């Protein structure tokens, strides 16, 4: 049977997954060399969870994540050198080296950050989706979080509001089966996270997070659902991290056999095998892609290595916005490239037509309850 | 100039700013059909509709974080905390997200949002409902913190806060809402970060904010009868502190008393003392005195509750102490 996917799309997905894999391997090396410090959470094994959705969304859809946040912006087109520079704490990083590995922000590509407080980004995503509804835009927000984050209050508080107000937000729980060293089943009464959506009358589905095409389809469908105003979607991407929780974690809480077994499901060779089986590309194509990506990542490391630390007067910037101060546009600042920047309607242009709680509905409910208004 | 209650002044500010800018919305518990737990949002649902006056579930962390997210992409939310005691559940979103977004993003994002609600003792509500928590927030870079005492300042500072491109934390007061004062109509905007000399004097400066202001004015009047001329400096904004105004007043009177409803340890007043001792030491004729809430939890019993809080007699005693007129 012929593949329903174009060769371009498939190879693009391959290129992106391979970029993330290579980038993360090199980031791990740089950490070992002492050039990256602090916490550094690698995405190796989970690439399909970033790449499928990135391809399924529109470039102007909003996205945000937790601290395991190198993969998603790379999948969206962020500059690998500037991400690596951020990891190394250089002034040419996306946040001038102020955020580091856990806080990648690339607003040009509508990537609204990596967040270090477990579950802290979950309400933010609902708010961004709220803003889209408020302005009558058909934009969708996609928010990543971990399996352990699903036990935070923020998750439950937010799902309730997102569902009640039918916000166009897709939540992807990256269930890699561990929160640091604790297996999810040890701390969760309901370890199948997708089931929790039903508590909020919301769509919830498990997805094979080791298969980029399944992720792509799931998010394409969910985005359509959100854009149609039907409300939020919770997807549980069942995935696995091949490395420890962070570079500091030797991962002794799981067996070698378990990791070996999971590595057999590596999403990158899986996609390659699919493309080859479809006869769309053969070894030579993959080899040349891999060479191209390796060179790109080498270049990224070189760029970061050669970049200076931020200047000390940066200490006094970016805490409070002074009157008339513009936002910093990283690629413009660092690479001198003109970039598109989000623009919002002014308070006089904007017409809010959304009726979040229609009066008639409220009054009917009151009547039914025997209340007189 | 019309006389308004503090709550009406806030209502006016909200209505005017929402009229002026459709990006502004109000969210909180009971703000819509109930017209506000303290009636600050009276009539606003009818005027602006349910997408702009939003009855939130009792999920402080959730609706606060949601609004921080909305602010990240250009809306200008006003988040009403039923009281600041409950907002402790939302502190993560205020401190870890709102206050740090500009920093973490290296200047890519701004977060124009106002968190507002009553702080301080409510009156016969015991310890969980009677806390002056402003010092907690004043601690954090990335926030602005305001605590207006008068209806006019409440209106003007809320308007300024809504127009500000930073997260602003605003402390009102359950026992301030019914206080009346003259309030300018229309475009009355009080800049944040500016203290205000509410009463001029020459012998001693009392520095205060929020509800304690009224006890200070009462004390000043009493003291005037004894020939003591008191200057009352209303800080109004607690972050950033108006150092210039503090120093100017202390250099004039050479004596200072700081009055704060909250607890003594790590209070805002401690930082004011620090500014004075490091920058105006030579101008001082006496050590700076602080009057604060007692270092205990607030009780329900009327006598215990009264004894816990600063009042005019305590302030008068402190003024006399810095004037070396103790027991006089
Ligand atoms: C509120 C909070 N508590 C604890 C931590 C420390 N911590 C960082 S990551 C983590 C585990 C989270 O696991 P999960 O949500 O499954 O994400 P994963 O790392 O597997 O991607 C913990 C406990 C934190 N950052 N924030
Ligand atoms: Mg996990």
Automatic annotation (TrEMBL), chain B:
Its cofactor is thiamine diphosphate. InterPro entries: THDP-binding, Transketo_C/PFOR_II, Transketolase-like_Pyr-bd, Transketolase_C. Transmembrane segments: none annotated. Residues 4-179 form the Transketolase-like pyrimidine-binding domain. GO terms for molecular function: oxidoreductase activity. Keywords: Oxidoreductase, Pyruvate, Thiamine pyrophosphate. NCBIfam families: PRK09212.1, PRK11892.1. This is Pyruvate dehydrogenase subunit beta. It comes from Corallococcus macrosporus DSM 14697. The lineage of its organism: Bacteria, Pseudomonadati, Myxococcota, Myxococcia, Myxococcales.
């Amino acid at each position: 049977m012929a593949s329903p996917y174009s060769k371009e799309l498939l190879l693009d997905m391959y290129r992106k997954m391979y970029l993330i894999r290579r980038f993360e391997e090199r980031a791990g090396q740089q950490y070992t060399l002492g050039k990256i410090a602090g916490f550094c959470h690698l995405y190796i094994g989970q690439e399909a969870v970033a790449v499928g959705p990135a391809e399924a969304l529109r470039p102007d859809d909003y996205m945000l994540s937790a601290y395991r946040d190198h993969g998603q912006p790379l999948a969206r087109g962020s500059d690998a050198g500037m991400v690596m520079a951020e990891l190394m704490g250089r002034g040419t990083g996306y946040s001038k080296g102020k955020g580091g590995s856990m806080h990648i922000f690339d607003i040009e590509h509508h990537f609204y950050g990596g967040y270090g407080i477990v579950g802290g980004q979950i309400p933010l995503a609902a708010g961004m989706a709220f803003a889209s509804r408020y302005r009558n835009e058909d934009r969708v927000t996609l928010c990543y979080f971990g399996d352990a984050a699903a036990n935070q209050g923020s998750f439950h508080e937010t799902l309730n509001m997102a569902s009640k107000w039918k916000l166009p937000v897709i939540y992807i729980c990256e269930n890699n089966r561990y929160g640091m060293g604790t297996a999810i089943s040890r701390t969760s009464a309901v370890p199948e996270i997708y089931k929790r959506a039903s508590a909020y009358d919301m769509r919830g589905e498990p997805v094979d997070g080791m298969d980029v095409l399944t992720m792509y389809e799931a998010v394409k469908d969910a985005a359509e659902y959100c854009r149609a105003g039907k409300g939020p979607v919770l997807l549980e991407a069942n995935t696995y991290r091949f490395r420890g929780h962070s570079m500091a974690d030797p991962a002794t809480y799981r067996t070698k056999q378990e990791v070996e077994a999971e590595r057999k499901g590596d999403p990158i060779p899986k996609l390659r095998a699919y493309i080859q089986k479809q006869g769309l590309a053969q070894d030579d194509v993959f080899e040349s892609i891999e060479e191209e990506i390796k060179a790109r990542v080498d270049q990224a490391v070189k760029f970061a290595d050669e970049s200076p630390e931020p200047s000390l007067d940066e200490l006094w910037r970016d805490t409070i916005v002074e009157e008339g101060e513009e936002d910093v546009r990283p690629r413009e600042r660092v690479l001198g490239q003109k970039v598109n920047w989000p623009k919002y309607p002014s308070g006089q242009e904007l017409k809010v037509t959304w009726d979040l709680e229609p009066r008639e509905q409220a009054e009917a409910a009151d009547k039914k309850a025997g209340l007189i208004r | 100039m019309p006389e308004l209650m503090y709550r009406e002044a806030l209502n006016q500010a909200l209505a005017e700013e929402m009229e002026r800018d459709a990006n502004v919305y109000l969210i909180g518990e009971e703000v819509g059909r109930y017209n506000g737990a303290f009636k600050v949002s009276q009539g606003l649902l009818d005027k602006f509709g349910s997408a702009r006056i939003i009855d939130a579930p009792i999920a402080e962390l959730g609706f606060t974080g949601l609004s921080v997210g909305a602010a990240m992409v250009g809306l200008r939310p006003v988040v009403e905390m039923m009281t600041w005691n409950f907002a402790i559940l939302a502190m993560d979103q205020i401190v870890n997200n709102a206050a740090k977004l500009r920093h973490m993003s290296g200047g890519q994002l701004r977060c124009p949002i106002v968190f507002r609600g009553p702080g301080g003792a409510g009156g016969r509500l015991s310890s969980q409902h009677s806390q002056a928590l402003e010092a907690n927030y004043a601690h954090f870079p990335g926030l602005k913190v305001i605590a207006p005492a008068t209806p006019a300042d409440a209106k003007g500072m809320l308007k300024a806060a809504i127009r500000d491109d930073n997260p602003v934390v605003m402390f009102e007061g359950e026992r301030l809402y019914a206080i009346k004062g003259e309030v300018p109509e229309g475009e009355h905007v009080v800049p944040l970060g500016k203290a205000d000399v509410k009463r001029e004097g020459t012998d001693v400066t009392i520095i205060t904010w929020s509800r304690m202001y009224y006890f200070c004015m009462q004390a000043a009047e009493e003291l005037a009868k004894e020939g003591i001329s008191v200057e009352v400096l209303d800080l109004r904004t607690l972050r950033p502190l108006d150092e210039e105004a503090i120093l100017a007043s202390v250099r004039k009177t050479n004596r200072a008393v700081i009055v704060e409803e909250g607890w003594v340890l790590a209070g805002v007043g401690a930082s004011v003392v620090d500014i004075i001792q490091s920058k105006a030491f030579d101008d001082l004729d006496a050590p700076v005195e602080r009057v604060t809430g007692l270092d205990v939890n607030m009780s329900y019993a009327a006598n215990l509750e009264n004894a816990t809080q600063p009042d005019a007699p305590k302030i008068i005693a402190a003024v006399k102490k810095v004037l070396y007129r103790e027991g006089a």
